[in-house]
Amino acid sequence: xxxxxxxxxxxxxxxxxxxxxxxxxxxxxxxxxxxxxxxxxxxxxxxxxxxxxxxxxxxxxxxxxxxxxxxxxxxxxxxxxxxxxxxxxxxxxxxxxxxxxxxxxxxxxxxxxxxxxxxxxxxxxxxxxxxxxxxxxxxxxxxxxxxxxxxxxxxxxxxxxxxxxxxxxxxxxxxxxxxxxxxxxxxxxxxxxxxxxxxxxxxxxxxxxxxxxxxxxxxxxxxxxxxxxxxxxxxxxxxxxxxxxxxxxxxxxxxxxxxxxxxxxxxxxxxxxxxxxxxxxxxxxxxxxxxxxxxxxxxxxxxxxxxxxxxxxxxxxxxxxxxxxxxxxxxxxxxxxxxxxxxxxxxxxxxxxxxxxxxxxxxxxxxxxxxxx
Length: 373
Ligand SMILES: [Zn+2]
What we know:
CATH class of the largest domain: Alpha Beta
Radius of gyration: 24 Å
Strand order of the largest sheet: 1-10-9-8-7-6
Number of domains: 2
Oligomer: single chain
Number of strands: 22
CATH architecture of the largest domain: Alpha-Beta Barrel
Helix content: 25-40%
Largest sheet: 6 strands, mixed
Strand content: 15-25%
Bound molecules: zinc ion
Distance between the termini: 50 Å
CATH superfamily of the largest domain: Glycoside hydrolase/deacetylase
């Protein structure tokens, strides 16, 4: 039996008119600090309104979705809020009895609903970040600014936007430990020249020495990782608690400089042999992802190691990984000779078809323990 709907119809504008043309590149959606991404379907703009698959929306806000195929409705429930989406009549019924007339449609089996209307009902403020063509919905859980967030999600945004590029790109990660330093500026310039990105595992003591560099790293679109405080084996590996405490302290310093922090960690001298399961569990329970490397530039062997040797070390190992189809993760340090070697390394990599990217904060980590948590 069909339900009799008695309610006041509310006509609301579901559009964010600034979106403009229908054929504008499709936007990405961020809810608080999470980029919402589906493998098979993207948000779509039609008639100035952005539509998302209903299931994408429900899971993104940590809601529950219930389908009623007989009635052709779906209900999204989150805490004390509930909306029923009636596809046949194209209306949304909220649990306080309001009916909202909305356009909705099916694409490839996905039921598409207007994002702004529904998100607003669930208490989100929806805004448009025009420079990035991103729609962001925020509630009280959103703590960082749009600018910081875009920097933080830069890699992920890049990947989402390029997911349909079928040409297989070779990827390489370059990582710098122990900075920031006197050489950060040179390193950043070389990276910029080669349109490349890197990951900087920073020490809190170095940030204090070079307080302006962290922001420049972030401005360049690179990732930040944590490397701790003491860099002293006896101190940092005293216990799982001492390791986690150092990373947390480092994290607080990073946060105070750039307004967000990192979940990527590289433990001094690498995770082997110190990071037994007990240590790794402690890191994972704090949300840290443990990153080692598979290409050692050996630039930390001594101050007299020549730039040409550093270049040779890197290229030899990269070639080896290429044979085995493994993405190279290069370990470097912020030293004078490494900063001199870097342009030659970048020149080799880019000429050989590598895209030099920074580690994404959400990526499964690669470490000596094959612990990808
Ligand atoms: Zn180090």
